[in-house]
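Bit of a strange request maybe. I'm writing a small parser for structure token strings and I need a real example to test against, not something I typed by hand. Could someone generate the tokens for this chain?
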Amino acid sequence: MTEPDPNQTVQEDQSQREPSHNGTGQAENAPENLSAAPVEPRPASRSKVLVMAVAAIVVIAALYLINQRWIKPAVSGSTANNAAHPMAPEFSLKDLSGNRINLADLRGKVVLLDFWATWCGPCRIEIPGFVALQRRYGDQGLTVVGVLTEDDPANVPEFAAEMSKDGVTMNYPVVVGDDRLGELYGGFVGLPTTFLIGRDGRIYAKHEGAAPVSVFESEIKELLAASGNSAATNFKGAGGEGSSDEIALGDPDTVNSEVPGINLTKLTAEQKAAFEKRLEQLPCSCGCKNPNVLECRKNDRNCSVSLKIAQDELAKMLGKAPATSQLTSPEPVTSAQR
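Reply from user aminoacidic:
Good idea to test on real output. This should exercise your parser:
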């Protein structure tokens, strides 16, 4: 009786679990039908089982760290709050053709605002649906706007060419976003992150991760039903009626501050000057090349080390006890800890 090779079995099983890179989704070397000659496999030894379990854990952890942008959309989330819908933060950005797109000019329309990137697999999956929605409802008042996020605009032409090979032509504008715009819209756990804005300029739904085009279409129809610049009353959306989840946005006074991430509205002009001077005296210990905390805040909005130092200094200036003292230089940290 021929016994199966355990190593070959493990390799075949792993090859079937890995994502296909050629787009066919077909598994090669499929096992033959063994019903004509049944073979009873030998029980695996305890050591082999342990090795296989450890290897599986390592693979899963690596895939999560590398492809977290793919994992997030596996459970697409939607928020629709009937009680209060925040006003969408204004922006004025140029699209890839050099035309300026002002959100204020789109008042009276329903806007699907999609934060995406060319390297984001789920983003690529959603785009054909957005193209179809723009084509189907554009004459009724829908405008789709893509916001390129964490990506180089130079990558878009090649991306668009690849999409066109599949018969998909992006028929809506794409603007180039930045960290500031992302913060105004509440920050993102992953991409894509999509907002639906009503005719009145308020955000009615937020989707984190890829969602079926039918979900977007249903919500768009609800928002298009409103007339003029009026609110969409009794909006239910994918979140369901009575959803208690809120659409959290960034604080403009914090995002647009002279010291990014720090709300300076409670300081006088003299205090602001003294605060910035103090930050110039503190070294940045996050591992960057910025000479001080102030420069780090201005050049790297995502640095948590300089943000914590600045928050503590502001608390001391306002007479509040900081969470940790930064009078002495903090312990150095690696860039991975930022």
